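wait is this the right file?? whatever heres the structure
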């Protein structure tokens, strides 16, 4: 059992209650500039590969691009995740003694993408399970709900987990879950209260990967370039998942219930 602080911060209380919390001014302008450079470097590098070298974790379409494990391929991203405040803030909000990276992701949506990102949960496609598990998502430019800021079902991190029958960002999420099929969130706003945040450049949202979330189609003057850094705290453990985005636990010889301690899950912050 993870001990909770006797005097938690407002962000920690919001995290426990709602499963999501906005973090205003988390990322400075120099970091934003660096991550913008990194985004185009990564896109150009992946686009230059022959089709047989593009992995299942990478998608290149005319209006959409996504790529995982950026820190392994780009020094700018590696520097950002190690030297920025993200891991320290994640530790504070989740009340964790240390923070490790699970994975990172870049998502670029063109200025006009009519198709919304459907409602889904991230955790059913992960081999990492725990209460001290989060994603920190941010856009390099201001976003509103209408220009593809993330939308969340408040407190949906408390369960249940739903079945995901479709492929999303390279993950075939086809396992049956206790919650059954995904609900029609937008058809029942009283049962599924939706919250979204208008974010300025440098703002971020921190949320648990069991949160139901989505985004609307992107209609803006330029592309929406966003990153998410998925981080693990003290109570996160390895659980086998055949549909996992990161099916590496068996290769690393993890046993169910093991902590995910390996070079591919780097330690980013530690108390003291």
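ok assuming it is, sequence goes like this
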């Amino acid at each position: 059992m993870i001990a909770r602080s006797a005097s938690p911060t407002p962000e920690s209380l919001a995290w426990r209650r709602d499963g999501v919390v906005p973090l205003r001014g988390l990322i400075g302008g120099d970091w934003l500039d660096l991550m913008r450079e990194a985004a185009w470097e990564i896109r150009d590098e992946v686009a230059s590969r022959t089709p047989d070298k593009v992995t299942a974790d990478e998608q290149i379409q005319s209006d959409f691009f996504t790529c995982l494990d950026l820190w392994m391929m780009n020094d700018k991203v590696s520097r950002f995740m190690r030297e920025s405040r993200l891991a320290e803030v994640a530790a504070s909000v989740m009340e964790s003694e240390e923070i490790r990276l699970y994975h990172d992701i870049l998502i670029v949506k063109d200025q006009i993408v009519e198709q919304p990102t459907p409602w889904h949960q991230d955790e059913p496609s992960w081999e990492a399970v725990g209460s001290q598990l989060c994603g920190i998502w941010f856009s390099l430019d201001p976003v509103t709900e209408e220009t593809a800021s993330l939308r969340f079902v408040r407190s949906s991190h408390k369960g249940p987990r739903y079945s995901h029958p479709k492929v999303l960002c390279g993950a075939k999420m086809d396992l049956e879950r206790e919650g059954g099929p995904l609900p029609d969130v937008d058809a029942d706003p009283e049962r599924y209260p939706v919250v979204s945040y208008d974010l300025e450049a440098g703002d971020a949202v921190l949320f648990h990967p069991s949160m139901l979330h989505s985004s609307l189609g992107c209609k803006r003057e330029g592309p929406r370039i966003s990153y998410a850094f998925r981080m693990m705290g003290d109570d996160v453990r390895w659980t086998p998942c055949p549909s996992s985005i990161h099916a590496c636990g068996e290769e690393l010889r993890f046993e169910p219930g093991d902590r995910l301690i390996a070079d591919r899950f780097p330690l980013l912050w530690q108390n003291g």
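The chain has one domain: 11-258. so i think its the right one actually
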